[in-house]
Specification:
Layout (H helix, E strand, L loop, with lengths): L1 H20 L66 H4 L1 H7 L53
This protein binds heme C (2 copies).
Amino acid sequence: MKKLIGAMLACLMAGSLMAAEAPQITTDNGGVKSLRNSADLAIEAPAAQMKNFRKDGDLYTRQYMHQPPLIPHDIRNYEIDQKVNKCLACHSFKNATAMKAPKISPTHFESRDGLTLGEVSPRRYFCLQCHVPQTDAKPLVGNTFKPVDALN
Ligand code: HEC
Ligand code: HEC
C-alpha cells in the first residue's frame, strides 16, 4: 500500500513538474467561440456531448431550391468507404423500393463535366459532405434566416 501511495505521489509530482515546464502557447482569437468554445488551441477542450439523433421520422421540408435534404434518421455506424456505402444499401435506385427509402435523384449520377454516368458520380459518393442528420441543438449563432415561401 505504502509503495502504491509513493508511486502515486511520484506521478503527481512528475505531472506538476511537466505542467510547469510546458510552454505557454496562447492564441488570441479575439474572443470568438467555436464548437470547442473558447478553449485555447494548446488545450484539449472537454469532449462535446453525444448528440441524440432521432431514430426515424418524417422527411424534413426543404428550405430553398437545390438544398440537399436533411437526414431524418440516425446514421450511427453507417459505413462509407471505398468498398462499402451503407447509404446506397437503401437509397440506390436498385434497393430503394424494397427498403421503402427515397431514391437518390438523377443529379447524383452526373459528373462535373455534365455527363450522366452509369453509377453514382464520385463527387456524390460521400453522402455526408452534403446531407446531415438533425438534433435539437441550439444554433451556435443567432440568425434571421427564413425559408423561401414556395417550399413551405
Ligand atoms: C436501412 C435503410 C437506410 C439506410 C442505411 C440509410 N437510409 Fe436514409 N432514409 C431511409 C428511409 C426509410 C428514409 C425515409 C424517411 C424515414 O423513414 O426515416 C430515409 C430518408 C433519407 C433522407 C431524406 C430524403 C428526403 O427527400 O428528404 C436523406 C437525405 C437520407 N435518408 C440520407 C441517408 C444517408 C446520407 C445515409 C447514409 C449515411 C442513409 N440515408 C442511410 C432509409 C435508410
Ligand atoms: C455534393 C452534394 C451531395 C452529395 C455528396 C450527395 N447528395 Fe444527395 N442531394 C444533394 C442535393 C443538392 C439534393 C437535392 C437536389 C437534387 O436532387 O440534386 C439531393 C437529394 C437527395 C435525395 C432526395 C432525392 C429526391 O428525389 O428528392 C436523397 C435520398 C439523397 N440525396 C441521398 C444521397 C445519398 C444516399 C448520397 C450518397 C451516396 C448523396 N445523396 C450524396 C446533394 C448531395
